[in-house]
Amino acid sequence: MLNRSYIFASCLAVMCLAPAANAAAPLVLGHRGASAYRPEHTLASYALAIDLGADYVEPDLVSTKDGVLIARHENYIGGDSSALVGADTTNVAAHPEFASRKATKTIDGVTLTGWFTEDFTLAELKTLRARERLPAVRASNTAFNDQFEVPTLQEVIDLVKQKETQTGRTIGIIPETKHPSYFKGIGLSLEAPLVQVLNANGYDDAADAVIIQSFEVGNLQLLNTLTSVRLVQLTSGLNARPYDFVLSGDSRTYGDLLSAAGLDFINDYANLIGPDKSTLIPRDAQGNLLSPNAIIANAHAAGLLVTPYTFRPENQFLPANFRIGGDPNAYGNDLAEMLTFLNAGVDGLFADAPDRARAAVTIFAASVPEPQTWAMMIAGFGFAGAAARRKRVVARA
């Protein structure tokens, strides 16, 4: 498994990433499923994302008290709603039997009062029902409140495999480990349980339709020694820092990691970067998109693919020049925004509305026969192979 052929490693750098029929087309990544249309991180949301054309669906992963990985945006599931976490994502506050579980905790430097997944067994969490996280933005989604269970990672995988059988196409999963340092600190590390579930389902190779994400660095480096599946270094604002860097005193920021030297560093343990889209194409003071900076090109030069987040259809999330009308919750011209990023060379889109992302990718693929990374592969075949091979050999020597 470690000594892959030179050609195979090169192909994995680009071609084998996409499960879709057109392997060179950018990926549509269902962000928390189809969260524009259903409460996020529910089986209904993931199923709809697949039906709408997502190549991969994204479960954010947190742990239960008994060490089971479940899909929630945060381990916080209700109580102290804020702009940082959104509204309650379950109806836990309506369960008087769990009133005593309410607690105040500090998660990655943010203090919250409410209920947290690590204080519940899976059986207890299965008595709760999911709710829309952004009810003020997506009021129509609240019609589905209290209908769906909180799913486990295994249940998400089971759904994906069922959909593969039904559709005859390969569908990927792209799980994100949430707050890995925090969970490690309370004795519920995410990495080993995640690899165990993936291995049990046949996901153990870079050619498999699974990619693991994290905003932290250390747990990706650890995962690189535990599995051969592909890894994504997520980044947020340029001045922010991975929380494991905060804990260790490492002064590097995400901006440092997205420099040419930082991208070479990431290439030692990961295959992709997942940046906040605004760090790739900044906005001016009026909120209009400017020109792409060098990050996409530099990432490709370092042998990394680029899958930015999050593409949302509502005006309030769009650049000013792509908004339509004055209602912040109305849909704007997100197609134009996505095409702008595709033309800038990104390799995939994390989208809340996978059907709209699929439309953008279809238009783009029809107009550009060979995306930039396909050309990169042809031009830099040997380099990409060496880079892919190096990150595994270095990590496991």
Provide the fold topology.
Layout (H helix, E strand, L loop, with lengths): L5 H9 L12 E4 L12 H9 L4 E2 L2 E4 L5 E3 L4 E3 L24 E5 L2 E7 L5 H4 L27 H15 L4 E2 L2 E2 L2 H6 L5 H10 L10 E4 L3 H9 L3 E6 L7 H6 L5 H4 L2 H7 L5 E4 L19 H7 L3 E2 L27 H11 L3 E4 L2 H14 L4 H8 L1 H16 L1
Parallel strand pairs: 1-2, 1-14, 2-8, 3-9, 10-11, 11-12, 12-13
Antiparallel strand pairs: 3-4, 5-7, 6-7
Helix pairs in contact: 1-15, 2-4, 12-13
Structural account:
The protein has helices spanning 6-14, 43-51, 122-125, 153-167, 180-185, 191-200, 218-226, 243-248, 254-257, 260-266, 295-301, 334-344, 354-367, 372-379, 381-396, and strands at 27-30, 56-57, 60-63, 69-71, 76-78, 103-107, 110-116, 172-173, 176-177, 211-214, 230-235, 272-275, 305-306, 348-351. 34% of the residues lie in helices and 13% in strands. Helix 1 (6-14) packs across helix 15, helix 2 runs parallel beside helix 4 (153-167) and helix 12 packs across helix 13. It contains 15 helices and 14 strands. The protein has one domain: TIM Barrel (Alpha-Beta Barrel). Strand 3 (60-63) and strand 4 form a beta hairpin. Strands 8-2-1-14 form a 4-stranded parallel sheet. The protein starts with 5 loop residues before the first helix and ends with a helix. The chain has 397 residues and is of the alpha/beta class.
